[in-house]
Design goal:
Shape: elongated
Structural class: alpha/beta
Radius of gyration: 17 Å
Number of strands: 5
Order of helices and strands: EHEHEHEE
Mean pLDDT: 84
Helix content: 25-40%
Strand content: 15-25%
Number of helices: 3
Largest sheet: 3 strands, parallel
Strand order of the largest sheet: 2-1-3
């Protein structure tokens, strides 16, 4: 059987990431309906999963309970972020959202 990397069909970013990962690992990227994806993730029988995680959560323990599968798993962050931005004075204007997202202001 072929190795499958599953993603939720409605998540365009997950589809693109799964396709790239599949190309690198000789796997097959497979989109599933959200309910089917959730069930497949809970079962843990496929080779890999691309899962979107919330940027900010009010209750980290509850979020972890809802997101972490019951089967042994390892996680790899596909995007590395840091809580710091290096900026120079008088070069650009920046704004910060409530969730800490930094934007270049017009």
């Amino acid at each position: 059987t072929s190795k499958r990397i599953l993603y939720s069909r409605g998540d365009q970013t997950a589809r693109e990431l799964a396709g790239r990962l599949a190309a690198l690992t000789h796997a097959v990227a497979t989109g599933r309906a959200p309910d089917d994806f959730t069930a497949a993730l809970a079962g843990g029988k496929d080779w890999g999963y691309v899962v979107a995680l919330p940027r900010v959560t009010a209750d980290a323990c509850r979020s972890a309970k809802d997101l972490v599968p019951t089967w042994p798993a390892s996680f790899t962050a596909l995007v590395d972020t840091r809580p710091t931005a290096i900026v120079r004075r008088d070069v650009a204007r920046w704004t910060v959202d409530q969730d800490g997202t930094v934007h270049l202001a017009p």
